[in-house]
């Protein structure tokens, strides 16, 4: 009976946390499964942003700021720059093959 009451008596924060954690799992799986690199980077950025919201809900604003800045910011920019360089290298290789 106590377990049933515990399942029924969710706080709003618990529901929001459950939704966010479910979204984190979906983002993690989608990042691993997707075939396009740009899509994987965007999903990774959303994962980091959701994780920073989770840190805020857990009352850890320092971790939230760090996750948002490093996870969604700096790391994503590095991924975008790397992806751009990969595409440029592929173009050069394709031009050399055609010659």
Kindly report how far apart the N and C termini lie: 76 Å
Structural class: mainly alpha
Helix content, binned percent? over 70%
Order of helices and strands: HHHH
Measured by DSSP, the beta-strand proportion falls in under 5%
Figure out the total of helices.
Answer: 4
Instruction: Work out the number of β strands.
Output: 0
Rounded to an integer, what's the Rg over CA atoms? Answer: 20 Å
Mean pLDDT over all positions: 88
Low-confidence spans: pLDDT under 50, at least 5 residues?
Answer: none
Shape: elongated
Describe how the helices and strands are arranged.
Elements: H1 2-8, H2 12-33, H3 37-57, H4 61-98
Helix pairs in contact: 2-3, 3-4
Fold and architecture overview:
Helices cover 89% and strands 0% of the residues. It is an all-alpha fold. The protein has one domain. The longest helix is centred in the last third of the chain and has 38 residues, at 61-98. The radius of gyration is 20 Å and the shape is elongated.
Brief overview:
The protein has 99 residues and is an all-alpha fold.
Task: Describe the structure using short key phrases.
99 residues
